[in-house]
UniProtKB/TrEMBL annotation:
Coiled-coil intervals, chain numbering: 334-361
Name of this protein: BBS7 protein
Encoding gene, per UniProt annotation: Bbs7
Domain BBS7 platform: 493-595
All copies of domain BBS7 helical hairpin, residue ranges: 598-711
């Protein structure tokens, strides 16, 4: 049996990823203390006694805490508490006495931290630093943002081997200040953990979790990586924020505990000793920032402790809800529960009274002649990412308090897609696309206690601008925060490790008096997932894949020259227009040349056609459902219908659900084929817009050979 009974221990301030740990059990007591750092800069340490939190120490507020780790001399209990706050690392004893204040030489805030004995590993956005006894040892500049850092256990591998989890889907393994090798992983890695808590038997095994919800285990040997297992995200769950190893099932083998950004907590165990199997999951209402396994609430009963974004600490325990034994024990349990309920009621009444008093006080002070209005501050955790599976963007908004409503506005045409987990009521307002370039205005009204809202949008490549979310929580006085997200010209492209060089490619070449930094800034403007920092070296190559069509793009550029290759003419056409416009803004003359491969058009049409055929068939089936249902009502029996019509009736709900999820899919495909047709002839200097109606007629016929012939004959 897995952990069953959930209990909430206490709430601290808003917490960042990896900021809660369990201190090792000390002395005769088997229960462990909890230590957590929040974004108010407060470190809180507490134990649990009879289901109540008992404070050990609490520090004064300060800069927000971005990481919390435990340390100590190697092979001794790790009970010293280290927190990263701004560019400083502070150390506390388990009693709360500060013994270290180390101001690093980092110009940015610390984003990731790892501690091993006297060695301290710190990362800012792109910079890694290694200190030993607070003295600078090694430094490395990463090619993309660093999300997490880890070092293989020195006592097992006998050398210092740091591993960086970088946003460009790569783990970078270092030796001193140099890159030893890179490990490609299937998504942007967000968190690293030592397998089994100690790196496994070899000490070389690392578990990683990605922002698109994938898990994997890699052995980091001295010369090359060995991939052991990889788990996809078939259930389309959230990104992984935290990982721990702990034997919660009591079978002598440590399970893998995983916390996700959609609030799902998972336990994987190793039944076959090879690949992990999902044994248990539990849904919380907000993202899980930290996860730990240990014995917290009651001696003899292990539990999983999770800290969530808004600072709630929740435990899932193996302690049975109903104890075995006589009625006397059950009576004792009910009395214990009754006293707990009674104390909670008293606390709630006290809080309600306090809120009323404070509200009255605020009303009086706001009406006085010397009133000064203060806008309440609140924290919003947001994430805007492209999903490879359905070529849509997910916008996740998480607020530390309940959301009242979210207004979404866009100055470019985008589709809002349905999200199953979304219980908010959406209403659309009509808007003028001229002269304000206002294409979308939608309001999501949230149900009470909604703290996390997920939206899905699909953009059109070539149309770029800004999506804005106005977030209003349920707090007084009413206040709102605006968050902006860029929809880029090639918004449906995603970084990839390699491409197929055998495809027919079109080439766009730029030459001119521009610097490496200038052309890099144009590429950042045009494409998602490109690091904002100008890469080190003289030149750089990035590979991309179009998530909607599967076409590809290779971009190589240096000072004074850029070369872009794609098997889709429309991609080249969009890049040509955007890069020309950006260069003109900076008054830079560009010499643009292009080499168009006629075979690429046929190749792209063959990629689009199966999707087109599927969507046309789906639309036809959906249009028949009402008529077939009417027949069913009148006739009572549908055995006389052809099998294909009977199967439409049987699958009606699934068909309608799929059609509803992708409302404008068919129009998107028509638009892409039309753009491909126009772009093909644009490069030849011919305007074929008058032939578009004829093209649309052929598309309705859905004949691949006829479509290719039309493209070649036009």
């Amino acid at each position: 049996a897995g952990p069953v009974n959930g209990s909430v221990f206490r709430q601290v301030g808003v917490t960042a990823q990896k900021t809660m740990r369990l201190l090792p059990a000390s002395g005769r007591k088997a229960t462990q203390k909890v230590v957590v750092g929040d974004q108010d800069g407060v470190v809180t340490c507490f134990g649990i006694k009879k289901g109540e939190a008992v404070p050990v120490f609490k520090t004064l507020p300060g800069q927000k805490i971005s990481r919390l780790e435990l340390g100590g001399a190697l092979n001794t209990p790790q009970e010293k508490i280290f927190v990263a706050t701004g560019s400083e690392v502070r150390g506390f004893t388990k009693r709360g006495k500060q013994f270290l204040s180390f101001e690093t030489n980092l110009t940015e805030s610390i984003k990731a931290m790892h501690i091993s004995g006297a060695d301290l590993f710190l990362c800012a956005s792109y910079i890694y630093n290694h200190y030993c006894d607070c003295k600078d040892q090694h430094y490395y500049l990463s090619g993309d943002k660093i999300n997490d850092v880890l070092c293989l256990p020195v006592d097992k591998v006998n050398c210092i081997t740091p591993v960086l989890a970088c946003q460009d889907r790569v783990l970078r393994v270092l030796q001193g200040s140099d890159l030893l090798y890179e490990v490609q992983v299937p998504g942007p890695p967000t968190v690293l953990a030592l397998n089994n808590g100690n790196g496994g038997d070899s000490g070389e095994e690392i578990v990683y979790g990605t922002s698109d919800g994938k898990l994997g285990l890699i052995q980091i040997t001295g010369s090359k990586p060995i991939s052991k297992w990889e788990i996809g995200n078939e259930k389309k769950r959230g990104g992984i924020l935290c990982i721990d190893s702990f034997d919660i099932l009591g079978d002598g083998v440590k399970e893998l505990l995983v916390g996700r950004d959609d609030g799902v907590l998972e336990i994987y165990n190793f039944e076959s000793a090879d690949d992990p199997v999902l044994r248990y999951d539990h849904a919380l209402s907000e993202s899980i920032a930290s996860i730990q396994g240990g014995c917290v609430g009651k001696d003899g009963y292990d539990e999983i402790l999770a800290s969530t974004y808004s600072g709630w600490l929740t435990g899932l325990t193996t302690e049975p809800v109903h104890r075995e034994g006589g009625s006397g024990e059950e009576l004792k349990l009910s009395q214990e529960m009754q006293s707990k309920i009674s104390s909670l009621r008293n606390e709630l009444e006290h809080l309600q009274m306090k809120v009323l008093q404070e509200r009255e006080k605020y009303q009086q002070s706001s009406q006085s002649s010397t009133a000064v209005s203060s806008v309440p501050t609140f924290s919003v955790n947001d994430k805007f990412t492209l999903n490879k599976d359905d070529a849509s963007y997910s916008l996740i908004l998480e607020v530390q308090t309940a959301i009242d409503n979210v207004l979404v506005q866009s100055d470019v045409p985008i589709d809002l897609l349905d999200v199953d987990k979304n219980s908010a009521v959406v209403s659309f307002s009509s808007c003028d696309s001229e002269p304000n370039s206002n294409f979308l205005l939608a309001t999501y009204r949230c149900q009470a206690n909604t703290m996390r809202l997920e939206l899905k949008v699909r953009s059109i490549e070539g149309q770029y601008g800004t999506l804005q979310a106005y977030v209003t929580p349920r707090i007084q006085p009413k206040t709102c925060q605006v968050h902006q997200y860029q929809i880029k010209p090639l918004s449906l492209h995603q970084r990839t490790h390699s491409i197929d060089h055998d495809r027919p490619m079109n080439t766009l070449t730029l030459k001119g008096q521009f610097s490496f930094a200038e052309i890099h800034s144009w590429v950042v403007f045009s494409l998602p997932e490109v690091p904002e920092k100008t890469p080190a070296g003289d030149s750089i190559t990035f590979y991309f894949q179009n998530t909607f069509l599967g076409t590809q793009l290779e971009s190589t550029y240096r000072k004074g020259e850029g070369c872009f290759k794609s098997d889709n003419i429309s991609t080249i056409s969009i890049l040509k227009d955007v890069l020309s416009k950006e260069a003109t803004k900076r008054k830079i003359n560009l010499n643009i040349s292009y080499d168009i491969n006629e075979e690429s058009v046929r190749h792209t049409l063959k990629l689009i056609h199966p999707k087109l055929e599927y969507q046309q068939l789906l639309a036809k089936k959906v249009h028949l459902i009402d008529a077939l249902r009417e027949l069913q009502v009148h006739e009572g029996n549908v055995d006389f219908l052809l099998p294909e019509y009977r199967s439409i009736l049987e699958e009606a709900d699934q068909l309608l659900e799929e059609y509803k999820r992708q409302p404008a899919h068919l129009e998107r495909l028509y638009g892409m084929i039309t753009d491909l047709f126009i772009d093909k002839f644009k490069f030849k200097g011919t305007n074929v817009k008058t032939k578009v109606p004829l093209l649309l007629e052929i598309l309705d016929g859905c004949d691949q050979d006829g479509l290719i012939s039309f493209f070649e004959a036009a």
